[in-house]
Amino acid sequence: MTRIFAAPRPAVPAATRLAALMVLVMMLAACSGSASEGTSASEDADDTAATESTDDDMEEEDPEPTDAAADADDADADPTEESASGDAVEIRWFVGLGAGGQPEQIAAQEAVVEAFNDSRDDIQIVLEIVENDVAYDTLSTQIAGGNVPDIIGPVGRDGSNSYAGLYLDLEPLIESTGYDISRFPAETVENFRESDGTLPGLPFASYPSSIFFNTELFDEAGLPYPPQSYGADGTAVYGEGTEYEGTWDFDKVAEIAAILAVDANGNDGTSPDFDRSQTVQWGYVNQWTTLMFAQGTHFGAGYPVADDGSADIPEPWEQEWAWYHDGVWNAGWAPSQEQFDSELLSGNPFASGNVAMANTHLWYTCCVRDDDGNGLDFWDLAVMPSHDGTVTAKMHADTFRIMAATEHPDEAFEVLTYLLDDSALELLNAYGAAPADPGLTDAFFADLDAVFPQGVNWQVALDSASYTDVPSHEQNVPGWDEYKLAMADFESAQLSDPDMDIAAAIAELEQELSGIFAANAE
């Protein structure tokens, strides 16, 4: 059974959303007696956070919500209604906080649910798909109404932060069922452990970042392709043996991007006659990863909270923000927001064929396709550029989580392990995510080769996993959702204001964030 909620929903006010989370916290205490032996539920309201989706990337994140029509009867139905058999336990799987809303992803999820439901009489999965731009409001509304789904996901660290403290600790169920987690690298398991020692998630999907580049545009410009292997120290060399030879860093990216930017009169970005207002081809874009803490991490990992709890924007982030603003408004090799949304780029710049390089994650394989879902064949992968001698390939990682308020923790854990095991490869391919389970890697990329037969160098993505950002750009901060809204406002200004004073804007942002952190400190 699938319920697709596609009709717009009114935004839930912040006070209502916080109240929703408080309701859930109280429900946890009320339901704790019905949980199976060994399970636990957090009752700490201070760890909760109200949420509002502001992602422009898939971070965490579907960039283009599904256009499927909402089924009014299903939308109004009680998701806990008895199944046709009358005695099967229904486990509600809520999709929308991250990937899962693209047509091919919906089809894969429905197939996974159908296979499970056909094989079981005692448990039935009810799939609820909610558009990403209303998913957080919808989930908060369900929480406020005491109508909490059993499983959410796929969801990354970003989406999970918005409901921190409200997930079931899986470790007691892992121990009681003997579920084998030894196939996962130990460090990836520990990455999901919270500071209180609980383990609310298990490894499922990894999305390393790299450079998607348009081979046709590079060929047309007579330029060497970006490097596809990291050097011994992580840095790479561009154009070895050619006039363009040099370290593959972001200065080199800007140099090459200028050559690849072209205006309507045929002038490239190196010409004094280049008119950025008439650009028809761009050299580089941050593809759906522009929210400022994500974008800044291209230059280096950092954490924006100082030891005293105030805001302190990491220096690499400040440098990247200034670099990209210059690339949009002065050099013109990156699109402004207006250009990003134009007919030429249609909100999906790299897939339009009019952008030479895109900095993004492996999940983007979902969307470098034509309208019929067929893979586009004009691209390949290159390694991440360095900055000041350091390579940072920020990582997204998705999993599924069980809500602590579930009335059926044992059955929910059975469904969870089904998603992580039996159906993992089918879902991973639909989501464009590299498996956290090393045993699935070869099969995963073989399936992607069938979609993109041009021969993509997938080793680049695997190698990029060695240069992940520590700390993660999605590491939780006090007042996560307010923090994201402040970052979104900064991003909007960066992409819309050619006269933005970056240094002054950063000073104002730090002041605003310090207030947010102080108001939400434990």
Strand segment tally: 15
Biggest sheet, open or closed, and with what strands and sense?
11 strands, mixed
Distinct helical segment count: 18
Termini separation comes to 41 Å
Instruction: State Rg.
Output: 23 Å
Shape, principal axes of CA atoms: globular
Q: Strand content of the residues, in percent?
A: 5-15%
Overall residue-averaged pLDDT value: 85
Report the uncertain regions. 5-85
Helix percent band: 25-40%
Secondary structure category: alpha/beta
Q: Could you characterize what this model shows?
A:
The chain is of the alpha/beta class. It is 35% helix and 14% strand. The chain contains 18 helices and 15 strands. The protein has helices at 14-31, 72-76, 103-119, 132-144, 157-161, 171-177, 186-190, 215-221, 250-260, 292-296, 315-329, 337-340, 409-420, 424-431, 441-451, 459-464, 480-496, 502-520, and strands at 2-5, 89-95, 123-130, 151-155, 205-214, 237-238, 246-247, 262-263, 279-286, 355-361, 379-382, 386-387, 390-391, 395-402, 434-435. Strands 1, 2, 3, 4, 5, 8, 9, 10, 11, 14 and 15 form an 11-stranded mixed sheet that branches. The chain has a two-stranded antiparallel sheet with strand order 6-7. Strands 12-13 form a two-stranded antiparallel sheet. Helix 3 links the parallel strand 2 (89-95) and strand 3 (123-130). Helix 1 packs across helix 4 (132-144), helix 3 runs antiparallel to helix 14 (424-431) and helix 17 packs antiparallel against helix 18 (502-520). The longest helix has 19 residues, at 502-520. The protein is globular and about 75 Å long. The two termini are 41 Å apart. Mean pLDDT is 85; it is low at 5-85.
